[in-house]
Amino acid sequence: TQLLEQSPQFLSIQEGENLTVYCNSSSVFSSLQWYRQEPGEGPVLLVTVVTGGEVKKLKRLTFQFGDARKDSSLHITAAQTGDTGLYLCTAYNNAGNMLTFGGGTRLMVKP
Amino acid sequence: NAGVMQNPRHLVRRRGQEARLRCSPMKGHSHVYWYRQLPEEGLKFMVYLQKENIIDESGMPKERFSAEFPKEGPSILRIQQVVRGDSAAYFCASSPRTGGSGANVLTFGAGSRLTVL
Asked: Degrees (nearest 5) of the Cα angle B35, B90, A107?
């Protein structure tokens, strides 16, 4: 069974602070995706990382895929209240036919 | 620019009743996935369907739950004889092709929230 472990589960910070959330597994993935889910809505794709060691930037968000393609991190610089939400990492199972989700990191950015 | 449409958005049922959740995928998408999300948790895979075929139902409870994606019309997730533990948000996602590739993106609907009294 492929498991994606996300940490921390909950994070509450002040606006303007930096933060990093993690997604770890013992499995190797061909690609890994990060989604953000806001209350009452479905998840929305933020980024897909494919190559080991890859770094992708999306404005204040920086995504990194581990060299061994087993883990990933999401760093947010100068967090804003609009960053509040549930951040989910996902990867395809071995059969390649469905996404496995981590438990998510619930981020609260306070003004 | 219709995305994945789910209805109803909210459904209340009493124990023992049936719940039917509908999902219309994005135009041009022939792959549909259903996920369940309990409060304060991530999404758990339930079933993956293509038109008229169930490809993977490994995440679906063996009893009371069924899913279909007919040739015409939306995908349906059906829960018979609902119990309180079925209360959750049920999300549908669609994609134009099967997964495994980083280029394959799932688009999610806004979810259907089932409350069992």
From this structure: 80
- From the list B45, B103, B107, the residue facing A100 with the nearest CB is B45
| B48 interaction partners in chain A (CB closer than 8 Å) | 97-98
What is the DSSP track for A34-94? Answer: EEEE-TTS--EEEEEE-STT-EEEETTEEEEE-TTSSEEEEEESS--GGG-EEEEEEEE-T
Q: What is the pLDDT of residues B18-74, one digit of tens each?
A: 999 999 999 888 899 999 999 878 899 999 999 889 998 989 999 999 999 998 999
Which residues of B fall within a CB distance of 8 Å from A97? 48, 55-56, 98-100
pLDDT for the residue numbered B98:
60
Nearest residue, CB atoms, B45 vs list A31, A50, A98: A98
Contact of A39 with chain B, judged by CB distance below 8 Å, is answered with no
Give φ, ψ of B106 to 5 degrees: -90, 135
Q: Which residues contact B107 (CB under 8 A, 6 or more apart)?
A: A45, B3, B4, B26, B29, B93, B94, B95
